[in-house]
UniProtKB/TrEMBL annotation, chains A, B:
Highest taxon of source: Bacteria
Protein name: Helix-turn-helix transcriptional regulator
Pfam families cross-referenced by the UniProt entry: HTH_20 (PF12840)
InterPro entries registered for this protein in UniProt: ArsR-like_HTH, HTH_ArsR_DNA-bd_dom, WH-like_DNA-bd_sf, WH_DNA-bd_sf
Occurrences of domain HTH arsR-type (ranges): 1-92
DNA sequence: GCATTACTTTACTATCAGGTTAAATAACCA
DNA sequence: TGGTTATTTAACCTGATAGTAAAGTAATGC
């Protein structure tokens, strides 16, 4: 179940360790040890997290000597951003405020001009 | 583990049934039966999904006679949108194209001027 | 060739997630 | 009061997740 791409992406992001890994990758390619360094966790745990991120296509891996560097592959985040679009009108404060503002203007001009 | 708010929100969204429930709530308050209707799933399963959404503060519930209507509470989506901000530069096509364009300009000027 | 470094795989454990059926609760309505 | 409708709770099953320790692989470099 929940094997669709969007579910996979959300699921991969639902873990603070994995989000921290992605954040670290915004500064460029990193080795597994680089990524593991801040966490109080064994290497196999990190390997697993990387597998989850890879399966969700949020990272790409390569080989350089004995290293297997990771780099950010942000496209799935774009899909989330697009999914979010349908909700943006419900949570965007600036939009709400603009809307309120426009409605205020509207009612003021009605007061002044006596429009219907 | 992963008890932080953002993880909770991502986790709640990592299920197509729950995303469909949220989508349906964009058109207004709905009863549990309304929400359950499109799914090939028993009521207890829906109750559980609603509990997950409620725990993630993505919905709010009330009481009206024997109904317990649900309404969208989109604020946590705003948090995701804000989290996304740090990645937007990596996936926004317009930015990428601008970046490509600047790099092209750069390499052209290198060709012409013989810069290192 | 052999130790070291950098990982991954395997096997195992514990907990959580998503579903079920059956029973419980709670408000309406005749 | 007692039946019907709406929803939840309880108990259970199954499979996935997140971690571990220990062994395996693979490239580097003396």
């Amino acid at each position: 179940m929940s094997s669709d791409q969007l579910s996979n992406t959300f699921s991969a992001l639902a873990d603070p360790t994995r989000r921290a890994i992605l954040a670290k990758l915004t500064t460029g390619e990193k080795t597994v040890s680089d990524l593991a360094e801040p966490f109080d966790m064994t290497m196999p745990a990190i390997t697993k997290h990387l597998k989850v991120l890879e399966k969700a296509h949020l990272i790409e891996r390569s080989k350089q000597a004995q290293y297997r560097p990771c780099k950010l592959h942000p496209e799935p985040l774009k899909d989330i951003d697009e999914w979010m679009e349908q909700y943006r009108q419900f949570f965007e404060a600036s939009f709400d405020r603009l809307d309120d503002y426009l409605q205020q203007l509207q009612s003021k001009s009605e007061d002044i001009n006596g429009n219907e």
